[in-house]
Amino acid sequence: MGVRLMVVDDHRLLAEALASALKLRGHRVLAAAAPAAGAAELVISRAPEVCLLGTATPAEPGMFDPVVRIKRERPQVAVVVLGPVPSPRGIAAAFASGASGYVRHDERIEGVERAIMKARAGEAAVAPQLLQGAFSELLNPAAQPDDEGQRLLQMLTPREVEVLVRVADGEDTRLIAAGMGIAPSTARTHVQRVLMKLGVGSRLEAAALAARTGLLDRAERPTPAPDHVNNSDPTPEG
Q1: Which of 7, 115, 169, 230 is the most exposed place for a label (fewest CB within 10 A)?
Q2: Residues forming beta bridges with residue 32, ordered by sequence position
Q3: Distances (CA, A) of 119 to 110, 129, 164
């Protein structure tokens, strides 16, 4: 039986993509709202069974204030947080605010769906490996906080960073090629290298990872590609 749910994320493209995937699996998605600041009001007014709430900085003070308000005014709504690899503080803050679960933003749709079903059933929805990682960090704290975005940025060449930013902006192969002054086949090769280095299987996953880790905030924004592209390369996008 499908779940009545909402998807709330700062990145509308990612929210709508997740909402579409869940609709295809038989769930009733009430809304895919972009502004996290208005999440509480929207969830309270719609009263879904489960709310998927995206966040890029789970350890930041006040990040889960919307969850607190939702649980205060609509205690029957189960909130599952979608976020980056969490620190122990991030997991603790999510559950302390009243969240029913925590799912990594790059989790496969099957994992997200399992979390939704567990949350609706009143169970804690968090992957065992996330808890194990959190406990390991508590027992063996790193000398410096792990900066995933900076680590990923150092893995890519400047040109690959530009390609990733353009992918996250929704540009297809021809637009990337036009904006960078390269052939579509070369742009396609750059995209495949970026996906390989990031360890993801699609452009959407790459965009999600870049957004969640803060990589996009660190990268220099490229000049947008022209609106009309006329390129003789007829090869379809890969």
Answers
A1: 230
A2: 7
A3: 14, 18, 34
Asked whether 58 and 84 are in contact (CB, 8 A), the reply is yes
CA–CA distance, 161 with 220 (Å, rounded to integer): 9
Q: Extract the runs of DSSP E, i.e. beta strands, from 115-236.
A: 125-126
* pTM for the predicted model, two decimal places: 0.57
Q: What is the CA radius of gyration of the chain?
A: 19
Q: Is the distance from CB of 80 to CB of 101 less than 8 angstroms?
A: yes
The DSSP symbol for 162 reads: H
Q: What is the pLDDT of residues 155-182, one digit of tens each?
A: 899 999 999 999 988 899 999 999 999 9
Q: How many residues does the chain have?
A: 238
Query: What residues form DSSP beta bridges with 125?
Result: 101
Pairing of β 101-104 and β 4-8: unpaired
